[in-house]
Specification:
By secondary structure, the protein is mainly α. The protein has one domain. It is built from 17 helices and 4 strands. A hairpin with a 2-residue loop joins strand 2 and strand 3. Helix 6 packs across helix 16 and helix 16 packs across helix 17. The longest helix has 25 residues. It is globular and about 65 Å long.
């Protein structure tokens, strides 16, 4: 994190930054085209929800179902799935391309057109409920909190945090409980156990469950990290830290790369249900010695985004800030910026392309 701070400070706040992004800016600047893109995002997301879960994004039952069958049925469908069809792959790629554009549109019109926020959140929240997963809800919370903060609505931000934080925790714990028919077992997995005789549990079982889950999220990944540093290093040609992209290229070109997550699983740390933190994922490509350089560049991306937003209200800059915030928020658990294909595309289009193309013009000192 020291090098992250160095990256943030590498560009003076008075500088002018000019950069490219991974898609034409007209998609965002044209209001009517922006609405069309968001509607397409909803349509493609609904199609993907149906392909993955067999449910309709526009059905009331999808939004109201909250029992254990939702998550369990989703996991069963994943296990039963042999391979995705060409149409399903194209649907996934199209949604992944549209996602970063939609995020930038949200940053542009958040205050002036609230329907934009609804069209962006609707398919993401619907996907979360259809699968019985929690991650998407936390993603939306981070996205909207960052946008509210950068739009200068401090009072709304405080109220939003006060309202959202408890609601998210209750929803998260309720979701976990629903997977076990409302009866939470003593241990979810071998190393995540609850003490129902603790002081917190005597006040509320919800507090005990929330504390254990949150603390495991913060700490478990570092156990995975400590195991990973003892494993041999194998270079993955700069795609190992972007697993969705790696899997596609492996299938297309028929090759196989060994990553730290795979070697951790072989060594007894099953990464399918245990955290590893962001560091082993990044080390696939950048080695442990060069991770400070990656964090320096991520800090630099944050600086670029903050400067471009402050000076020009550039929507892609705010989207870049959001992605850096997502990266940091999940860093103790995983590489969230490459957890799925849509986040991978967003990272490439809104973080990597600007970092490669940025031009910084520092102000000249006046000679008196």
């Amino acid at each position: 994190m020291i090098f992250f701070n160095f990256g943030v400070r590498s560009i003076p706040r008075t500088a002018v930054v000019i950069y490219s992004i991974g898609f034409p800016r007209v998609f965002v600047l044209n209001r009517k085209l922006s609405i069309v893109i968001l509607l397409l995002f909803c349509a493609v997301s609904a199609l993907e929800v149906h392909q993955i879960t067999g449910k309709s994004l526009f059905s009331l039952s999808t939004w109201l179902a909250s029992d254990e069958s939702v998550y369990n049925l989703y996991q069963q469908k994943l296990q039963d799935r042999q391979s995705a069809s060409v149409f399903e792959i194209l649907t996934k790629i199209l949604r992944s391309i549209i996602f970063p554009i939609s995020l930038t549109i949200l940053c542009k019109y958040f205050r002036s057109n609230y329907i934009v926020a609804v069209l962006f959140a609707f398919p993401i929240l619907g996907l979360s409920l259809a699968r019985g997963t929690n991650k998407e809800i936390f993603d939306l919370a981070i996205i909207f909190l960052i946008i509210i903060m950068f739009y200068g609505a401090r009072r709304k931000l405080i109220l939003a945090v006060a309202a959202i934080a408890p609601a998210l925790m209750l929803a998260f714990i309720s979701n976990i409980a629903s997977r076990y028919s409302g009866d939470i077992p003593n241990c979810i997995v071998d190393d995540i156990c609850f003490n129902f005789d603790s002081y917190l549990a005597k006040i509320s079982v919800t507090l005990e469950v929330g504390f254990v889950l949150f603390s495991s999220y913060i700490t478990q990944g570092y156990e995975g990290l400590s195991r990973a540093v003892d494993l041999p290093y194998e270079f993955t040609f700069f795609i190992g830290h972007l697993p969705p992209l790696q899997r596609i290229l492996e299938q297309v070109f028929d090759f196989d790369l060994s990553t730290f997550n795979e070697r951790l699983s072989d060594a007894g740390w099953d990464t399918s249900w245990r955290w590893t933190s962001v560091y082993p994922v990044l080390a696939n490509d950048f080695h442990w010695l060069f991770l400070p350089g990656y964090f320096f560049m991520i800090g630099r991306a944050l600086s670029i985004g903050m400067i471009a937003w402050k000076k020009n209200r550039e929507p892609s800059a705010l989207a870049m800030v959001i992605l850096v915030a997502i990266f940091l928020a999940y860093s103790s658990a995983n590489m969230q910026l490459a957890i799925s294909l849509e986040w991978t595309f967003a990272t490439i289009m809104l973080v990597y392309v600007p970092l490669i193309s940025v031009r910084v013009y520092k102000p000249r000192k006046k000679i008196v």
